[in-house]
């Protein structure tokens, strides 16, 4: 009587061999990806508003530094800042948007504003990689602001720099 040779599948170490092979393959693939290919980086900015305040976060220099901005809807004042390594707000920003959006002093009755941030590759020196957009919800008028930024001098209060204003309902440059 002839006995058939045992197949590889019948060995009791088969699951261990497969697991080791998959594990080694994963380590090799992971090392190859990390060494030869840039893995995608993700970041998130947030915006939220209600009838009194609009807030958002922005990236200042890539993924390393983030700032927080708040727009007081009643006054039109934007204030912002970023946390330093000790967990305290270091640099800070202040600006009033009412004049930029076409309001005359005392004219803003129950204003409604939106505040969002976006990325920008501006050619200006010493500004963040993000910009702030403030929109008057009743007219659509939108102002774009550069954020002064120098990582070595992130102290004191800086004003925002008005870049441009668009007015989709007349009275100035049209929205793109």
Strand order of the largest sheet: 1-2-3-4-5-9
Radius of gyration: 27 Å
Alpha-beta content class:
mainly beta
How much helical structure, as a percent, in the residues? 10-25%
Low-pLDDT regions: none
Backbone shape: globular
Concise description?
The protein is mainly beta. It has one helix spanning 14-36, and strands spanning 47-49, 53-59, 66-72, 77-83, 89-96, 113-119, 127-136, 142-148, 157-159, 161-166.
Can you offer a commentary on this structure?
The protein is mainly beta and 176 residues long. The protein has a domain at 47-166. Helices cover 13% and strands 37% of the residues. The chain contains one helix and ten strands. The protein has one helix at 14-36; strands at 47-49, 53-59, 66-72, 77-83, 89-96, 113-119, 127-136, 142-148, 157-159, 161-166. It has a six-stranded mixed β-sheet with strand order 1-2-3-4-5-9, with no helix packed on it. The protein has a four-stranded antiparallel β-sheet with strand order 6-7-8-10, with no helix packed on it. Strand 4 (77-83) and strand 5 (89-96) form a beta hairpin. The chain is globular and about 45 Å long. The protein starts with 13 loop residues before the first helix and ends in a 10-residue tail after the last strand.
């Amino acid at each position: 009587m002839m006995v058939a040779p045992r197949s590889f599948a019948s060995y009791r170490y088969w699951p261990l061999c497969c697991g080791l092979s998959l594990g080694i393959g994963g380590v090799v693939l992971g090392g190859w990806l990390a060494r030869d290919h840039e893995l995608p980086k993700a970041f998130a900015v947030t915006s939220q508003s209600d009838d009194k305040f609009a807030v958002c976060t922005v990236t200042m220099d890539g993924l390393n530094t983030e700032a927080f901005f708040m727009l007081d809807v009643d006054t039109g004042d934007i204030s912002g800042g970023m946390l330093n390594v000790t967990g305290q707000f270091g640099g800070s920003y202040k600006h009033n948007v009412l004049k930029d959006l076409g309001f005359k002093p005392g004219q803003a009755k129950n204003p409604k504003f939106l505040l969002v941030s976006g990325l920008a590759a501006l050619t200006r020196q010493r500004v963040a990689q993000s910009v702030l957009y403030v929109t008057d919800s009743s007219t659509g008028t939108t102002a774009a602001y550069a954020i002064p930024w120098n990582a070595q001098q992130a102290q004191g209060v800086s004003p925002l720099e008005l870049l441009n204003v668009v007015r989709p309902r007349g009275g100035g440059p049209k929205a793109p």
